[in-house]
Specification:
heterodimer, A: 293 residues, globular, B: 285 residues, four-stranded antiparallel sheet
Chain lengths: 293, 285
């Protein structure tokens, strides 16, 4: 399978799953409308009641807008990817076009690999691009609003160097976060293919049920909590994301910066290996799956 | 001439239901094979086994490959239109053509466009907006644009009106059957295809009841229109089928010499539908 054919498979995913782009467009639209409405209200009340709006921070950097947006985009990205990996192979099998795809000279390995690539790399990059565009638009609105209110933050808002470095950190974090959770996504993909084999209705119960059973049985049978601890460790970077909105720009940037250091952890690579084993399982079950009668 | 498909004791079970029971046959290169059988006989299952879409017991080689292991490799040279519409409806015609061009090394974009230009199908149209007839035309254009060695059609004209069916088969004859390429047609609409076939495989209850070249089939079966008053004499010869037509009794015989039957009636070329009907009443050997 050469790169050209692989790219066609990834493009097929983009054509089929329109949410790959649509989710971010809708989210961007909503955020911009909310931003506009918020600024209009602030403007209206400050005029109507002669209130002078004092910003909390004296020299705000524009990066804070992107960091706050990253929490929202990042959360939705992970939720969307969870649903995607849980259903993609299962939905394929249930769709009547399954026979058509299987009648093409495309191996099951290439099909599964294209789905993994689309989910782990393409979707996060689309989310990141939409985040940056939304952030620029919101920052522009904020700049206009503060100008009308008599503040002159244009320079500090649009300081090019800090902005670009925030964008860069976010791009790296948006790629690395899904890769950090790769073993979980790969497990979901395995369940998605596995339930095909058993003709179960939804892979959800399998994906959730097996870890829950392990969490319950491990302390009872072995007296250890290794699996639940590993899960907690896997989810720990997500806590960084959720706590970001409260922080100020410097600490927020630091936390996102910490996310870009994820590959320094041995668990990142170990998780990658576990994930690859699950992917191999997903390919195996996809290969064994049959067309519906 | 080499065998493109070799099946040996091919068996398929769904839980406790035996769908294919030790089916053995070969398909030679250049043959146009009619895989005929009543609904539920196991035609589609057999096709999906030889394409590697279903697991099976027994041995099968399609274009020399194990179809279950090397499905993606053999699909470079095999094209297939299944019995149910399977094209992805969420794509547009253009997207589908572009995808095929990127993914299939033997697909000709220009050929596909040429075929589609003869239809009313427009490139920007989403597939879900096309009628069933148009979807079949589109699928046909896709498979004809692939330079394949083996084309397998599974009830391809089901649900089409007479005009579209005729067009379909005309296109197959004009653009595919060149004496070099191999075609397997699974259908129970026998009159549509009988003039095309070079070989016949009749399947019933998951087993093969007849597997011969059309030439042998026509020699093996005799249709006799009984002379007035000779029907009883013909009946005594042990026909495999009897029916009334245009006020005369018509008998179908298997494996009898024409000389033996000549005194009792006019001998005609047998009708494939009658052979099919008679043969499918037999248990598979």
């Amino acid at each position: 399978m050469n790169a050209y054919r692989f790219a066609a498979l990834v493009r097929r995913e983009l054509w089929e799953r329109r949410w790959f782009i649509r989710t971010w467009l809708i989210l961007s639209g909503l955020l911009i409308v909310c931003g506009l409405a918020g600024l209009t209200l602030v403007g209206f009340f400050s005029k109507a009641f002669s209130i002078r709006v004092q910003p909390q921070i004296t020299h705000p950097g524009g990066g804070i807008v992107f960091l706050a947006l990253a929490s929202i985009f990042g959360t939705i990205l992970l939720l969307r990817l969870t649903v995607y990996f849980l259903h993609t192979l299962h939905d394929d099998r249930m769709d009547r076009s399954y026979v058509f795809w299987k009648s093409l000279p495309v191996s099951d390995t290439a099909t599964v690999a294209s789905k993994v690539f689309a989910g782990l790399i393409v979707v996060p990059l689309i989310a990141w691009v939409c985040l940056i565009v939304t952030g620029i638009l919101l920052l522009f609105l904020l700049s206009l609003a503060t100008s009308f209110l008599g503040h002159h933050f244009w320079g500090s808002f649009w300081a090019f160097g800090p902005l670009v470095s925030v964008w860069f950190y976010l791009a790296v974090a948006f790629i690395l976060l899904p890769l950090w959770i790769f073993p979980l996504f790969a497990w979901m993909l395995l369940c998605s293919a596995w339930t095909n084999q058993w003709r179960r209705r939804s892979p959800f119960f399998m994906a959730l049920g097996v870890p829950v059973v392990i969490i319950i049985l491990e302390p009872l049978l072995l007296g250890t909590h290794l699996f639940s601890r590993w899960l907690g460790h896997l989810f720990s970077p997500l806590g960084q994301m959720f706590s970001l909105v409260r922080g100020h720009e410097v600490s927020m940037t630091r936390r996102w910066l910490e996310l870009t250091h994820l590959p320094a952890h041995a668990e990142f690579w170990l998780g990658g290996l576990v994930g690859l084993a699950f992917i191999a399982g997903a390919i195996y079950f996809r290969h064994r799956s049959e067309s519906s009668r | 001439m080499s065998s493109l498909v070799e099946a040996e004791r091919l068996t398929k079970r769904y839980k406790n239901q035996l769908v294919l029971d030790q089916v053995s046959f070969t398909v030679e290169e250049g043959a146009i094979v009619g895989l005929l059988g009543p609904n539920g006989a196991g035609k589609s299952t057999l096709i999906q086994c030889i394409l590697g879409l279903l697991a099976y017991e027994g041995r099968c080689r399609t274009l020399g490959q194990d179809p279950r292991r090397s499905r993606h490799l053999l699909m470079e040279n095999v094209t297939y239109i299944p019995d149910q519409l399977s094209l992805p409806l969420w794509l547009s015609v253009d997207q589908l053509l572009r995808f095929m061009r990127s993914i299939h090394p033997r697909f000709s974009y220009n050929e596909a466009e040429r075929f589609l230009n003869q239809t009313e199908i427009k490139g920007a149209t989403k597939l879900y907006k096309l009628s069933k007839g148009m979807l079949v035309q589109l699928h046909l254009a896709l498979v004809l644009a692939i330079d394949s060695r083996l084309l397998i059609l599974d009830e391809p004209t089901l649900g089409l009106d007479v005009t579209r069916r005729k067009l379909f088969w005309k296109q197959i004859i004009d653009d595919y059957c060149d004496g070099r390429r191999t075609l397997i047609i699974a259908t129970h609409l026998i009159p549509e295809v009988e003039h095309l076939l070079s070989h016949l495989i009749l399947i019933n209850h998951g087993g093969i009841v007849l597997n011969q070249s059309m030439e042998s089939v026509m020699e093996r079966y005799q249709s006799v229109w009984a002379f007035p008053g000779r029907a009883d004499a013909l009946r005594a010869q042990g026909p495999i089928k009897e029916q009334e037509a245009l006020g005369r009794t018509v008998f179908l015989f298997e494996g009898r010499s024409k000389q033996d039957l000549l005194p009792y009636g006019e001998i005609h070329q047998p009708n494939l539908s009658d052979i099919f009907e008679a043969a499918t009443q037999r248990k598979p050997s």
